[in-house]
UniProtKB/TrEMBL annotation:
It catalyses: Hydrolysis of terminal non-reducing alpha-L-arabinofuranoside residues in alpha-L-arabinosides. Homohexamer; trimer of dimers. This is non-reducing end alpha-L-arabinofuranosidase. It is an enzyme of class 3 (hydrolase). Its EC number is 3.2.1.55. Residues 310-501 form the Alpha-L-arabinofuranosidase C-terminal domain. It comes from the Bacteria.
């Protein structure tokens, strides 16, 4: 048997709280995410409410999804919200030039999205149009959403059937402004973000959390410029009352792509070398989070400004025969391993990270849910989100490794074969472990200190092959099972984990 990797977890030493918003979601008007994913109108073959699929809602409610980002993505910077309100028959159409050049009929608009959030019990995260919209348009949108008195936009909302204002906290200032969001340079965008942030007002006690759009991957200049241009003295009152600064958080995007942009690789057909390339790419998340955070620390040591990763996940070639502009891909055990590694990194950076959003929730990129007509399939990634639910709003604990983690060699890079993190909440602790190795088992021995542990129960997500995935014919090919190889004795927890597995261990604290 393998030599165990020893680790210490001090359950009485508390790290930062892991915001549940690190488990956030993203739904764009892209391919079959909104239309034919969430929103199917009055199709008769699935139960719906207000056009929204209830099986999808139920599955996402089981994840306790904390927030949903909408309407994009690149789509956000061409979206004019006025086109998506009022009688559906009279809403104008538009071209979705980013995604398939298809006609968007605007039948899913503000009211439909807010109703979806209410059904999901998730907070809305709305991205305002900075690229092709106006400051006035963004300002009026938030007035429409959140104003309670007789203001012009509140009156319009009422005329469209909604009396009460909604609560909207998360407010994005555009998307990828260096690319599809307007081809800005960092300084020009920072100034525009300040303007949009200023005129997106807080109405009637609705306090916006304004998120400036940030870097792609390792564009650290972008992050640094946004910090320099924040426009207020950090630590002087951004957290209460009317906003002082123009934005409260800075985002960045990072996708795991094993190949090149033109040939990303198949979602289901890959060999071990390609799997390890995927893993080496995914492992970059740790470096990126550390580096963006370090830049922010230099300007904001008190960590007032949040770091938001509002798009992350795997990006492969589309499934053969599907529209290349729709970004539809299958989801295998490899995707679950990528998700496990990301969440451990998020937990380690919970002091700075205030939100993360997987791209995207249904039928697009690293989805939770794939639909096909009336069928609905939960992906391996879905199960990682579900198994990790115990980390939502839990207190993180560092996992101090006493032995080196065995590494995997991928080309010129070495990648750790194991990843782990821990947290506790309400008398329970949760340890997550990913054994990313394609062929070898891993053993871990945790020395649990600082609390009495009365019991330990494990769950495992694995399958005979890394390429395993769920389909309508075989929906449970990759699904969680009870995991017995968990032994607790006198505060020492021993676990032996098969190759390519994601495991969670729940500890009952006495
Ligand atoms: O998630 C798909 C696209 O990826 C988004 O629209 C864009 O922001 C990013 O480039």
């Amino acid at each position: 048997a393998e030599t165990p990797v020893r680790a210490v977890i001090d359950l009485d030493v508390t790290g930062p709280v892991i915001s549940r918003h690190l488990y956030g979601h993203f739904a764009e008007h892209l391919g079959r995410c909104i239309y034919d994913g969430f929103f199917v109108g009055d199709r008769a073959d699935v139960p719906t409410e207000g056009g929204v699929r209830l099986d999808v809602v139920e599955a996402l409610r089981a994840l306790d999804i904390p927030n949903l980002r909408w309407p994009g993505g690149c789509f956000a910077d061409e979206y004019h919200w006025h086109d998506g309100i009022g009688a559906v028959e009279s809403r104008p159409t538009m071209v979705n030039s980013n995604w398939g050049d298809v006609i968007e009929d605007n039948s899913f608009g503000t009211h439909e999205f807010m109703a979806l959030c209410e059904m999901l019990d998730a907070e809305p995260y709305i991205s305002a149009n900075v690229g092709s919209g106006t400051v006035r348009e963004a300002g009026e949108w938030i007035e429409y959403l959140t104003r309670s008195d007789d203001s012009p936009m509140a009156r319009l909302r009422r005329a469209n059937g909604r009396d009460d204002p909604w609560k909207v906290r998360f407010w994005g200032l555009g998307n990828e402004p260096w690319g599809c969001g307007g081809r800005f340079g960092p300084k020009a965008y920072a100034q525009v973000a300040r303007t949009f942030g200023t005129y997106s007002r807080d109405h009637n006690g609705n306090r916006l959390y304004r998120i400036a759009s940030g870097a792609s991957n390792d564009d650290y200049v972008w992050t640094e410029t946004l910090m320099q241009e924040l426009g207020f003295e950090i630590g002087t009152g951004n957290s209460a009352g009317p906003s002082v600064g123009a934005y409260d958080a800075i985002s960045f995007h990072f996708y795991t792509i094993p190949g090149t942009w033109a040939h990303k690789g198949s979602a289901t057909e890959f060999d071990t070398a390609e799997y390890y390339r995927t893993l080496a790419e995914a492992a970059r998340i740790e470096t990126l989070l550390a580096a963006h955070s370090a830049i922010m620390d230099a300007y904001d040591p008190g960590k007032t400004i949040g770091l938001v990763l509002d798009e992350w996940g795997t990006w492969f070639d589309v499934e053969p025969g599907t529209n290349p502009g729709f970004l539809y891909q299958q989801n295998t055990l490899r995707d679950a391993i990528v998700a496990g590694v990301h969440f451990d990194a998020f937990h380690r950076h919970a002091d700075r990270m205030s939100m993360a959003n997987i791209a995207q929730t249904v039928n697009v990129l690293q989805a939770m849910i794939l639909t096909d007509g009336p069928e609905m399939v939960l992906t391996p990634t879905y199960h990682v989100f579900e198994m990790n639910k115990g980390h939502h709003d839990a207190t993180s604990h560092s996992v101090d490794l006493l032995d080196p983690i065995p590494s995997i060699v991928s080309g010129e890079r070495t990648v750790p074969s194991l990843s782990t993190s821990a947290s506790s909440r309400d008398g329970r602790a949760l340890i997550s472990v990913t054994n990313a190795h394609a062929t070898e088992w891993a053993s871990l021995q945790f020395d649990l200190r600082g609390a009495e542990v009365a019991g330990a129960t494990g769950r495992i997500l694995t399958a005979p092959s890394l390429q395993a995935h769920n389909t309508a014919d075989d929906p449970h090919a990759v699904s969680p099972h009870a995991f017995q190889d968990v032994h607790l004795e006198a505060g020492t927890l021993q676990v032996r984990i098969p190759a390519h597995s994601f495991v969670t261990i729940q500890l009952d604290l006495a």
